[in-house]
Amino acid sequence: MAAPLLQAEIDINAPVGKVWELVSDLKNMPQWSPQCRAMKAFGPLRAGARTINLNRRKFLFWPTTSRITEFVPEKKLAFRVNENNTVWSYELEPTASGTRLVETRHAENGVKPVSTLLVNAAMGGVPNFERELLEGMNETLARIKAAAER
């Protein structure tokens, strides 16, 4: 069963190039995301590149790995988290006043059962965790907006 699509968007008063520079610099992901503590790409940033990530929720820390599935400069960055099969993406679209940035988490083939089990056991259940993820996505976009408009 597919997991619900989680999506947040924000309009940023800055050019696409500036927003892309912030979004595509993965080592800065901890500045934006309230859950990500580290994200490191191996090799040049492109489709197929691998990353290792460290996430945190309160007192829980857990590593993940991912593979970049789409890398279209100034348009889209997407990666699949290997441990749970979710795809996270950032899409940029020019607007009259700058850039619309959309962050999405989808799992069209569902989240891996082991991930669901762990979320239910350690993170208060899937609905609660997904609500928290959506709040984090909105916080992430607000932080990127603030940095881009500085």
TrEMBL record:
It holds the Pfam family Polyketide_cyc2. Coiled coil: none annotated. InterPro entries: Polyketide_cyclase/dehydratase, START-like_dom_sf. Gene3D superfamilies: 3.30.530.20. This is Polyketide cyclase. It comes from Mycolicibacterium flavescens.
